[in-house]
DNA sequence: ATCTTTGCAAACTTTTTGCACCAAT
DNA sequence: ATTGGTGCAAAAAGTTTGCAAAGAT
């Protein structure tokens, strides 16, 4: 994936170094292709390189965020989820099952514009947690309601 | 404020008790009229009743959330902010100065509808953190940019 | 009298940091 | 040879929990 090479370039340009640990974390993140916690990444990365430490994962993610390659969103409960920066998508997070779904950013365009026009507030794309209940959990809740009766 | 008496009723109806600690927390929250952290509340409440403990604040907030009176939002950094439930408003949070502004929920109505129609995703109103940069901080950033040149 | 809530201390979870050693440039 | 990164352990930060005593109903 040439994306990784671009990152290496940017990283070096910023005075950073591409180490094997960083390469592992980055490719795990690319491979995951979804929203993962630091611990998820640790597990992925340790499958190959068990010596990599959680603090290295955090520091790598921090470095990648500074580069603008990665972003994170805080779910309600505590752990943050990390993902590659991709301004074409926004996230909706189910507060019951913690699943994260991507939806087109275009859904948010009007809101973004309104907030800027009316409040001079610049929404930070990709750091915008829409919390709610997903389709599955909604159906599940509905079933439980039926059972209760 | 009659609102408090309604809460007392609901609390009792749910088998709970209105203690002096809970009354303090609740009125601090009402008086604050904005988005406060558990620690903010602790400080407010301890001005009058220094014996009240942080864990009591958390437990009171939890009880009030179960009653639907209170809700909380997680800012990026860690601490959550609590506020009275008020479905007429939504929050926009500045990630630089941590200020929270209320904006009319109507701004979000279309988005909410779209997410339901297209994804069967039920947005949880009032638990919906819009992170970005507020007017002031945006202006500040602009100034700094000018200075740098 | 019962059963919830409190204060306290201690545990827990997630993330950050200090430090000596190691490695990329 | 520099200087940035790593692993480890320990600290922070925010929140939750177990327990005996206190308080609301």
What's this, in brief?
The structure is a homodimer of 149-residue chains. Chain A has 149 residues and is an alpha+beta fold. The first copy, chain A, has six helices and six strands; from the N terminus they run ααβααββββαβα.
Jot down its keywords.
flat; homodimer; 2 domains; Dna Ligase, domain 1; DNA-binding; Arc Repressor Mutant, subunit A; three-stranded mixed beta sheet; alpha+beta; 149 residues
Main sheet attributes: strand count, strand direction, barrel closure of chain A:
3 strands, antiparallel
> What gyration radius of chain A follows from the Cα positions, in whole Å?
18 Å
Separation, N- and C-terminal Cα atoms of chain A: 54 Å
| Oligomeric state of this protein | homodimer
CATH 2nd-level architecture of the largest domain in chain A: Orthogonal Bundle
Number of strands of chain A: 6
- Helix count, DSSP H or I runs of 4 or more residues of chain A: 6
- The helix/strand series of chain A, from N terminus to C terminus, equals HHEHHEEEEHEH
The helicity of chain A comes to: 40-55%
In the CATH scheme, the class of the largest domain in chain A would be: Mainly Alpha
The CATH homologous superfamily of the largest domain in chain A is called: Winged helix-like DNA-binding domain superfamily/Winged helix DNA-binding domain
